[in-house]
Amino acid sequence: MKLVVTIPAYNEDKTIGNVISDIPREIGGIQSVEVLVIDDGSTEDTVKRAIEAGADHIISHKKNEGLGFAFRSGLEAALDVGADIIVNIDADGQYNAREIPKLIKPLLENTADIVLGWRDIDQLDFMPMGKKIGNRLATRLTRMVSNIPVKDAQSGFRAFSKEAALRMNLSGRYTYVQETLMQAKYKGLKIEQVPIEFRARQGESRLISNLVTYARRAGMIILTTYWNYHPLKILASIGGFLLLTGVALGIRVLVHFLQSGTVSPHTPSTIAAALLIATGMQCIILGLFAEVLKKQRIFQEEILYRLRKQESNGQR
Questions:
Q1: 53 and 176 share one domain
Q2: Domain end among 209, 228, 247
Q3: Is 124 helix (H, G, I), strand (E, B) or coil?
Q4: What is the 8-class DSSP label of residue 259?
Q5: What is the pTM of this model?
Q6: How far is Cα 232 from Cα 141, in angstroms, rounded to an integer?
Q7: Which of 59, 188, 190, 263 is spaced 20 to 30 Å from 179 by Cα?
Q8: How many CB atoms lie within 10 A of CB 151?
Q9: Alpha-helical runs (H) found in the chain
């Protein structure tokens, strides 16, 4: 069984060497451990330091594409080199690579498809309050829309079985942490969580340098992923609200008409009721159309999964 550790990196030449050196190369139940670094357009000596520390594979992007894109590249490359288990860890040294055996244990015991390392955010005195609040909000939103009792949706230290990696069809470029969890839930993959160590970062975060920007982009990824799997629910809710509001206004106008024989002075309400009812019906119809497209996309994803699996098995 082969374990591939993927490390997305952007200008992390000061820390990536130590991260790679800390990765255990001998783990019970694992025949080989390989390190794959995804250099996301670094302008410093990240690649050089990674090679010096013993990285087995290097993928280099010509420009900075974003963490989500780099993670997706790493996942695909790990499958290409025959990974049975894939562990993703950040290049900044905040996660302890020596904890990889603990992280992958549920996968080796076949009790999970994805293992998420979770940080006890409340106990991290070095983490700024703004980031703590942002982490809690993002985790709560992810928990709400995915119905997963996730403790730390932002953690970048996580492990995937080959089956789980083959099932991922990620589109986010900015980040991947919420999208992978939501897809895992919708695709019936089992998630386990294990407590992990988290250290203070040296220098500024490459991903969350601006909390407002991160919240906006991460929020859009969460909402887009939710939309991809629940278009009818969203549009039917909006359409139903508009339809009921329009009907309520229409009843008010109808009662007045039956009593007086005229819609005046409720002409604006009459127009509003007609528009609300028409818009509500359109939303519901669009929801039905979107639901058909969703089923087609899911069917295409299943075909893609089977092709990936055949290609992956052909490498053995």
A1: yes
A2: 228
A3: coil
A4: H
A5: 0.82
A6: 20
A7: 59
A8: 15
A9: 16-22, 46-53, 67-80, 100-108, 129-146, 162-167, 177-186, 211-229, 231-260, 267-314
Element (H, E) at 229: helix 211-229
Amino acid identity, residue 188? G
pLDDT at 205 over 60: no
DSSP-derived secondary structure letter, 95: B
Higher pLDDT, 223 or 202: 223
Q: Which residue has the tokens 């920007």?
A: 213
Distance CA 192, CA 75 (A): 19
35 and 52 fall within a common domain: yes
Q: Are residues 274 and 286 in the same domain?
A: yes
Is residue 35 a contact partner of residue 49, using CB atoms and an 8 Å limit? no
Lowest-pLDDT choice from 20-34, 65-79, 142-156: 142-156
Which of 113, 219, 211, 115 has its CA nearest to residue 157? 115
What gap in Å lies between CA 78 and CA 162, rounded to an integer? 9
Torsion region of 37: left, alpha or beta (phi above 0 gives left; psi -120 to 50 gives alpha): beta
- Same domain, yes or no: 64 and 121: yes
Handedness of CA 176, 181, 185, 188 (dihedral sign): positive
Same domain, residue pair 224 and 236? no
Domain range for 46: 2-228
Whether 174 and 257 map to the same domain: the answer is no
The Cα-based distances of 288 to 236, 247, 300, 301 in angstroms read 8, 21, 19, 20
Element (H or E) spanning 195, and its range? Answer: strand 191-195
- Bond before 265 cis per omega within 30 degrees: yes
Give residue-wise pLDDT tens across range 259-269. Answer: 776 766 767 88
Domain endpoint, select from 228, 262, 297: 228
Same domain, yes or no: 219 and 251: no
Among 207, 110, 214, smallest CA distance to 163 is for 110
What's the pLDDT tens digit per position in 84-131?
Answer: 999 999 999 999 999 999 999 999 999 999 999 999 888 888 887 877
List all residues 6 or more positions away from 183 whose beta carbon is below 8 Å from its beta carbon. Answer: 167, 168, 169, 170, 225
Domains in the chain, number: 2
Mean pLDDT, all residues of the chain: 88
My answer on whether 180 and 99 are in the same domain is yes
